Amino acid sequence: MEKIVRQSLLYDFYGELLTEHQKSIYEDVTMNDLSYSEIAGLNGISRQGVYDMIKRCDKILEDYEAKLKLVERFVKAREKTENIKCRVMDIKGKNTNPELNDTLDELSMLTDELLDEF
User: Fold this and answer.
1) What span, in angstroms and rounded, lies between the C-alpha atoms of 67 and 118?
2) How far apart are CA 15 and CA 19, in angstroms?
3) Are the C-beta atoms of 50 and 36 separated by less than 8 Å?
4) Alpha-carbon distance values, 17 to 11, 13, 50 (Å)
5) Taking the alpha carbons of 62, 66, 70, 72 in that order, is the dihedral positive or negative?
6) Is the full-model pTM beyond 0.85?
7) pLDDT digit string (tens) for 33-48?
8) Nearest in space to 58 (alpha carbons), one of 2, 5, 11
9) Is the dihedral of CA 84, 89, 91, 96 positive or negative?
10) Assuming Cys at both sites, which of 2, 14, 76, 109 could form a disulfide with 64, CB separation 3.0 to 4.6 Å?
């Protein structure tokens, strides 16, 4: 998984466990795409301080994930739901029974709803 995607997922799941200061700086780097120099200037700290804060936050978030595995479970659930959707569509493409097609349409809509919730 790409580093920035992983950071965003970890932040989505565990970000509320960071302090307000940590959240602000972490969001500026990962979501607002500001440079360390820009963030340092905005917060009155050194560029090295921003770097250290990001490293510390990454470690905190990774430690939560190592213990709770919420991101791992989320990714697996999403992959399985997408797999179900593909299988339903494959069956629908090969089927001519209208009643079964209605059921397959319902299953497809349910998987779409699940994927939207993710």
Assistant:
1) 21
2) 9
3) yes
4) 9, 9, 19
5) positive
6) no
7) 899 999 999 999 999 9
8) 11
9) positive
10) 14
